[in-house]
């Protein structure tokens, strides 16, 4: 399936029991999602837990936030592999018609075509009304986050075995399983539709919260040392 044609991307949404999950190729246009993304990266507690000293908290205005999402995620990730970040929003129990026909797989639903249009409404009017509380993403780590390979380093596996899971959730919603629910859905979506074979992740050693999320998703500690950061733990999980 083609996901990118010039400046146009496939439009779709993933539904889970509690969440609506929309690729940032669409969500970049939502004021509320850009505000969430900026708010998270300006929060010292969030940045310290998620990134340690590698990414201190910083404040971006709306134009800067849009540019960062465009260059770091859409251009580097979605355009290259058809993978990237997703905006994660809360859905109510009666948000969607019960007769929507779409792909059902493992506890999530993918909406496309007429089904997506019914949810999105004209000019995304309906999508902007959701409360966006997190992001969850998958990216080819070989072209995004891996440090340069040096002489003597072992060769990296193929890109479809180097898909990095990343996520961030508003502190107001910590401990509610939102990242786990969203990540499980997008991981299975990537296996079904992008042929992903293996996932990897990294956490700060002190970040026990993220470690527990990864363990619940089936990740195990690895000794790969891809990122070459003594302050970090590395994780992996084969696709199912």
Automatic annotation (TrEMBL):
InterPro entries hit by this protein: Acyl_CoA_acyltransferase, GNAT_dom, N-acetyltransferase
Highest taxon of source: Eukaryota
Domain N-acetyltransferase: 157-240
Gene3D superfamilies from the UniProt entry: 3.40.630.30
One MF term in the entry's GO annotations: acyltransferase activity, transferring groups other than amino-acyl groups
Coiled coil: none
PROSITE patterns, per the entry: GNAT
Name used for this protein in its record: N-acetyltransferase domain-containing protein
Organism: Penicillium coprophilum
Lineage: Eukaryota, Fungi, Dikarya, Ascomycota, Pezizomycotina
